[in-house]
Write a structure and sequence with these properties.
Elements: H1 10-26, H2 37-56, H3 61-87, H4 93-121
Helix pairs in contact: 1-2, 1-4, 2-3, 3-4
């Protein structure tokens, strides 16, 4: 089946779920973090979904791969912000683990898509 839109990609759908959970989680951070961890976490999570969408909209597979690599980097950035929040006791361990599981799923889907696109280039 040919993908007609980024919205058809499971990895994009799961990345949007991650964004929503990051927003809900960061709402509980203290107000002093609005320009710190809250903002950084939200921006990184949004970047994952946005780069998947932008890349899928590009004309060439290599451009898509480039944006997927950026998305993966943003995913690792979001995980880092979550780990920092947990170390600062802003995020309970159970919430951290749930978010890391969700992030891991997005990462696995991204890696699978990257492998498939690279194989198509061969």
């Amino acid at each position: 089946m040919k993908v007609k839109s980024y919205r058809d990609l499971e990895v994009w759908q799961k990345s949007i779920d991650l964004v929503v959970e990051c927003y809900r989680t960061s709402e509980r951070f203290p107000p002093r973090e609005i320009y710190g961890l809250t903002s950084q976490l939200r921006r990184a999570a949004i970047s994952v979904a946005a780069n998947i969408a932008e890349g899928q909209g590009r004309e060439h597979t290599r451009e898509f791969l480039h944006h997927l690599a950026i998305a993966y980097g943003s995913l690792m950035e979001a995980e880092t912000h979550l780990l920092i929040a947990a170390r600062l006791s802003l995020l309970p361990e159970a919430s951290l683990q749930a978010l890391l599981r969700r992030s891991g799923e997005v990462g696995r889907l991204l890696n699978g898509l990257i492998r498939a696109l690279k194989h198509r280039l061969l």
